[in-house]
Specification:
CATH class: Alpha Beta
Number of helices: 6
Order of helices and strands: EEEHEEEEEHEHEEHHH
Strand content: 25-35%
Mean pLDDT: 89
CATH architecture: 3-Layer(aba) Sandwich
Radius of gyration: 17 Å
Structural class: alpha/beta
CATH superfamily: P-loop containing nucleotide triphosphate hydrolases
Strand order of the largest sheet: 7-6-8-9-3-10-11
């Protein structure tokens, strides 16, 4: 069974009346069949957090759907969505859900423990072995056949070292578009990624 399928997903924000003008749009279409640790990066405002919110069902798509373990996350009961996908934002607080339908119209998650874990810019403390503890935790989830996303906005070289060390595949979000890379060298081969990382990669990679 496919762990995560993002199918024709689009989230559009607009403003103005009576003529609405689109101010931002996120588009994504990808599948992840098996457990993995996926590294994600992209400029601020590119849509990374919005994508995570759509995957966990705390944000409603304009079009498309998200299937977590074969279930449409936006058709799962609100109090059970975190048994499929859970979003840890920065200091690891869990995002809340936007409730649009009564619970009796939604289906059960069919899982007792989150299968997809999305870490949104986790704060890595460089002291007291904290980084090692977190990397071990990500690997533990992977061994338990979970899908793990680690989203960073690199501002230190060690952030890139972390992603290179633990991730099996990568995603780059830029101006509302999601692209994939099968490994770290392929990620850095993208000129947009190199421009984004700037001086962090000039001296070595």
């Amino acid at each position: 069974m496919t762990l995560l399928a993002v199918e024709g997903l689009r989230k559009q924000y607009a403003r103005g009346w009576p003529r609405r003008q689109v101010t931002f749009a996120l588009e994504a279409d990808f599948r992840i069949e098996r457990p993995a640790i996926v590294g994600m990066m992209g400029p601020n405002g590119s849509g990374k957090t919005t994508l995570f919110e759509l995957i966990t069902g705390s944000n409603l798509p304009t079009a498309g759907r998200v299937l977590c373990c074969g279930k449409n996350i936006h058709r799962v009961r609100y109090d059970e969505r975190d048994r499929l996908a859970i979003h840890y934002h920065q200091a690891y607080q869990v995002r809340r859900f936007t409730r649009t339908l009564p619970g009796f119209m939604l289906e059960r998650a069919g899982s007792a423990y989150p299968m997809i874990h999305l870490f949104d810019e986790p704060q890595f403390n460089t002291q007291d072995g904290y980084i090692g503890f977190m990397l071990d935790f990500f690997r533990k989830l992977r061994r338990e056949e979970r899908l793990v996303f680690v989203c960073l906005h690199p501002n230190e070289r060690y952030h890139l070292e972390i992603l290179r060390e633990i991730c099996e595949r990568y995603m780059f979000v830029f101006q509302g578009r999601v692209s994939e890379a099968p490994d770290f060298p392929a990620l850095l081969a993208d000129e947009r990624v190199r421009d984004y990382l700037g001086h962090l990669i000039q001296s070595r990679w």
